[in-house]
């Protein structure tokens, strides 16, 4: 058993399970939260995460396969994606291609009426292709503003971690290849203006 | 050689004048708070308040520290972000003091000052959870700037608390008043709105008002607001800690004076094995000391003052400041 990552939400471990290496994602208790809120959030997020991954997987989207869910232990057992985070991958030479794939992946998610909720560069894994992981904050929505919020989260994490590459234009140009992207990009403009004291961007 | 800076704060409700040495010794922290008779802050009224109070604050600060203007090597003022009339009043006072005493003048970023004063507590490379009236941001240093990792996408947490308190018939400032009445352990079902590392508070405050109108007691509603709003703030700062891999959290802003928030961040950081730095309440709220301290930090890196540095900028964002002093 090896702890891969202690996130804000959950502990992610790799374990041997039925003869293969898998991911155990366990939501741990947050001592600072009111017990009622704690219960509400954990249950909501666990169920929604499992359902959404299942739905995406069945549509052939690159996400980890779910093997088992244990609500009493707040735990999801899923496929281990053997790769590096997009955050790391973007430091290499192929960032153009990875941004392209990530943009298309996010557009595909959106076209299936799923918003990721936290698509930072740490929440994509790169093997020979790009996978989306960590659907802990995802939800079912076809609202342009929710989709735009996804884009904003991604662009912000790109900006704060990879300020050296001008990924914004590359990412948005590939996202806009999705035929229904128009209203989302409009909503993004509105959202970015609404950010407090936010400056106009090019 | 030890240097002394004077700092002038006037971004919103607070007029403040502070004195600090380059070793971090605080010599004086004078503050005066504008309290509106009714409703929210009126920028011009607040600016009038500041122009009335600032001369006395300068005098009181120098007297407390037993200094004359000759002892001071830098005048630092809050250039932004903030309310235009308030900023201009503070900048005018700073200019008058600097030019009449022939001292260098430097306008600094208010949000960055909140972060830098937290470093005085011993933090070296923290995530800052900055919760005030108008500003609600999670900030951390990366590649030459203080980057905003998460922030409110509608209203500042403090303005939300103030607005609810006002509608519930309590005066300004609303946050401390709600803290006093918040009691019990019953949690009402209110919207919990975290989007990635961003937050939204207006839906929460509207729903809270509806709960109050439908007969729930003020103490229970106030308690529930605090539980939800602060849990959201804790969650985004924890996300930023996880995302950046940093090992320190600093609290800043007026809302960071709240005891329940302090308790929650203490639990969160302990569970994560992260150090939590909480400046004294007089340094969490808006104050002149932090403005003076940031000015000294910038000058320590041989910052070259230009004519731009005596202006104000209402929309002076945290990530616009090039950080050369660390």
From TrEMBL, chain A:
Keywords: ATP-binding, Kinase, Nucleotide-binding, Serine/threonine-protein kinase, Transferase, tRNA processing. It catalyses: L-seryl-[protein] + ATP = O-phospho-L-seryl-[protein] + ADP + H(+); L-threonyl-[protein] + ATP = O-phospho-L-threonyl-[protein] + ADP + H(+). GO terms for biological process: tRNA processing. Its EC number is 2.7.11.1. Residues 1-202 form the Protein kinase domain. It holds the Pfam family RIO1. GO terms for cellular component: cytosol. SUPFAM superfamilies: Protein kinase-like (PK-like). One of its GO terms (molecular function) is ATP binding. NCBIfam families: arch_bud32. Belongs to the protein kinase superfamily. BUD32 family. This is non-specific serine/threonine protein kinase. It comes from Marine Group III euryarchaeote CG-Epi2.
């Amino acid at each position: 058993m090896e702890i891969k990552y202690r996130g804000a939400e959950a502990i992610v471990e790799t374990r041997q399970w039925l003869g293969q290496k898998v991911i155990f994602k366990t939501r741990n208790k947050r001592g600072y939260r009111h017990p009622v809120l704690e219960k509400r959030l954990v249950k909501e997020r666990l169920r929604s995460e499992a359902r959404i991954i299942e739905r995406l997987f069945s549509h052939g989207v690159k996400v980890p396969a779910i093997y088992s869910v244990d609500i009493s232990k707040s735990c999801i057992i899923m496929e281990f994606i053997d790769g590096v985070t997009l955050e790391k991958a973007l430091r290499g030479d192929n960032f153009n291609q990875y941004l392209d794939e990530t943009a298309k992946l996010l557009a595909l998610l959106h076209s299936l009426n799923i918003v990721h909720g936290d698509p930072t560069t740490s929440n994509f894994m790169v093997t020979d292709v790009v996978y989306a992981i960590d659907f802990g904050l995802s939800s079912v929505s076809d609202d342009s503003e929710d989709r735009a919020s996804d884009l904003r989260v991604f662009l912000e994490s790109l900006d704060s971690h990879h300020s050296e590459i001008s990924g914004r234009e590359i990412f948005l140009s590939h996202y806009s290849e999705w035929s229904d992207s128009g209203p989302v990009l409009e909503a993004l403009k509105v959202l970015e203006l609404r950010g407090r004291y936010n400056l106009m961007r090019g | 050689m030890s240097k002394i800076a004077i700092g002038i704060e006037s971004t919103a409700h607070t007029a403040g004048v502070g004195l600090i040495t380059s070793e971090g010794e605080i010599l004086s922290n004078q503050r005066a708070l504008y309290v509106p008779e009714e409703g929210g802050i009126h920028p011009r009224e607040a600016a009038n308040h500041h122009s009335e109070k600032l001369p006395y604050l300068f005098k009181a600060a120098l007297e407390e520290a037993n200094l004359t203007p000759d002892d001071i090597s830098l005048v630092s003022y809050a250039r932004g972000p903030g309310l235009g009339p308030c900023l201009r009043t503070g900048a005018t006072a700073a200019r008058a003091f600097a030019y009449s005493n022939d001292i260098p003048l430097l306008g600094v970023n208010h949000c960055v000052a909140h972060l830098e004063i937290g470093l005085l507590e011993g933090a070296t490379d923290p995530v800052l959870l900055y919760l005030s009236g108008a500003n609600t941001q999670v900030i951390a240093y990366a590649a030459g700037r203080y980057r905003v990792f998460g922030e409110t996408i509608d209203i500042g947490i403090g303005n939300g608390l103030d607005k609810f308190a006002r509608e519930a018939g309590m005066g300004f400032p609303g946050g401390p008043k709600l803290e006093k009445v918040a009691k019990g352990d019953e949690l009402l079902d209110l919207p919990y709105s975290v989007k990635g590392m961003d937050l939204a508070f207006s839906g929460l405050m509207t729903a809270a008002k509806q709960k109050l109108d439908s007969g729930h007691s003020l103490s229970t509603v106030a308690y529930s607001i605090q539980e939800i709003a602060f849990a959201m703030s804790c969650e985004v700062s924890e996300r930023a800690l996880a995302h950046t891999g940093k090992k320190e959290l600093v609290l800043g802003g007026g809302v960071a004076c709240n005891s329940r928030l302090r308790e929650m961040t203490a639990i969160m950081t302990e569970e994560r094995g992260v150090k939590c730095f909480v400046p004294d309440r007089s340094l969490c709220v808006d104050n002149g000391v932090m403005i003076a301290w940031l000015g000294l930090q910038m000058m320590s890196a041989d910052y070259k003052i230009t004519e731009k540095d005596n202006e104000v900028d209402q929309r002076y964002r945290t990530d616009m400041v090039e950080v050369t002093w660390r």
